[in-house]
Amino acid sequence: MSEVAKTWKVIVMAISVPPLLLMIFAAILGDDISNQAFKRFGNALITGYTFSTGLLFINMFFYADSRQRPLAPLFGMLLATIFGTLITLWLLSQGDLLLEENGSVRAQALSNIVRILVSSLALVMAVVVSVGGVFVAITSRPNRKLFEEE
Amino acid sequence: MQAALWFWLPAIALVVGTGTALSSRSETIKNLSKSIAIIGFILVLFSPVTVPDSPSSAAGHLLGSIIGPCALLITGIYLLAFSGNVEVGKLSSTDRKIGSACTFFGLIWLEGMHWWTWTPMLNGEVNPYWLVFWPTFLILATGLSSGAAFSLRYLGDSREKESNFMLVISSLTFALTVLGMMLDGPNISSEIFRDHFWLAISDIFGLGIGVGLSILVFALVIWIYESSLPPAKSLDAPSQQELEQAASIISNHIGGEQE
Fold first, then answer.
1. Confidence band of B89 (pLDDT split at 50, 70, 90)
2. Shortest distance, CA B133 to any CA of chain A (angstroms)
3. Which residues contact B36 (CB under 8 A, 6 or more apart)?
């Protein structure tokens, strides 16, 4: 394995290990919410897919701008978005499978969308803290001498 | 209908406006998108007042509750980063002090929302979206800070001190999560926090896989389209006469003149 691949492996592990340790710790404390967690995972997956394909569909307009406006890729992404929406609505209408504390399919779908926005906000703040922390740490240090004067 | 008008329409405007402002090349579209996003943001912020009966307006309430500490944190980190050793646009030492104070109070404010009585409350109960935001933020912050620490150590040159600083941030957010799982706050018990910790983990994994799938589909659509295009017309190989002409031009421009 090359040095670069090893470095990336270490970095991916560094990102994953703290949440994994927290999961082990929470599991030791012993709460069984596997049913709710599965529902939340399913809802997040289908909503994340549909929401993201929708945004990428909008983004495809800018790709089309640089390719003399072809319709085929736009149509392809539109189909992917419609497919995601239909699958989401079908899965949500399967009774207790993915419905959380919401009484109807519409309420669950809307709650999923709001939650994805709140989770995105949490992601943005986490990136601000981690990337901003790196900048603060780097700029707080005195300038290093690159070359010794002769 | 009221919720669609006063919450969902502004929320769509906020998301689409932000996306378009980031992706568009035209300055006019960028400025228009920014204005639409700002108007959407303000209307979402006021949704607990405009549509108090809609459950979705709890998101607007959360936004209003966390905008203060988040703004303090972002401003503080910005002031701290640009008052350090930067070559261009260095801020003053007073800005550094203000930055430290903003970061400190921003963090205290956020912590007070879990450990003290500043928890965002809606109709006498903890705002349900706060229980989504807080564990998700802590989990992602501890993972990303740890990733940043190891990136500095392995990709940077002599960056051990900076790496240690990031490890401290990661450990701090890790410790706060563990404490939340073990100790009750005034409004959020450790059991509720643990439940929402698992739900946040499910959210992160689900979103990651869902977004990853959509990016794969996006790449697939572009690849299928690009591979269906006819190959670009290539030029014929140069003739002997063209080669000789090129050789004579090149020979006239190399070698220099003899003194």
1. confident
2. 6
3. B13, B16, B17
* pLDDT score of A46 more than 80: yes
* Closest in B83, B140, B202 to A40, CB measured: B202
Nearest CA in chain B to A119: B133
Q: Rounded distance, CA B21 to CA A62, Å?
A: 12
Cβ <8 Å between A53 and B218: yes
- A130 exposed, middle or buried (CB, 10 Å; 0-12, 13-18, 19+)? buried
Could you say which of A116, A119, A130 has the minimum Cβ distance to residue B144? A130
**CA A64, CA A69: separation in Å to the nearest integer?**
4
Task: Grade residue B258 by pLDDT with cuts at 50, 70 and 90.
Answer: low
At residue B24 the predicted structure's pLDDT band, cuts being 50, 70 and 90, is confident
Per the CB < 8 Å rule, is A33 touching B198?
yes
Whether residues A138 and B159 touch (CB distance < 8 A) is answered with: yes
Question: How does pLDDT run across B38-48, given as a tens digit for each residue?
Answer: 999 999 999 98
Shortest CB distance from B225 goes to which of A40, A72, A131? A72
CA-based nearest residue to B155, from A134, A57, A143, A64: A134
Interface check for B107 against chain A (CB to CB < 8 A): the answer is no
> The whole model's pTM is what?
0.87
- CB within 8 Å of B107: residues ≥ 6 apart: B69, B73
**B2-18 burial string, b = 16+ CB within 10 Å, else e?**
ebeebbbebbebbbbbb
Considering only CB atoms, which chain B residues are within 8 Å of A114? 11, 56, 58-59, 129
Instruction: Tell me what pLDDT residue A148 has.
Output: 63
Mutate to test the interface with B, among A21, A57, A62, A125 (most CBs of B within 10 A): A125
CB A41 within 8 A of CB B206: yes
pLDDT tens digits for B2-20? 888 888 899 889 988 888 8
B125, containing H or E segment: strand B125-126
pLDDT in tens, B110-146: 999 999 999 999 888 999 999 999 999 999 999 999 9
Contact assessment for residue B55 and residue B122, using Cβ atoms and an 8 Å cutoff:
no
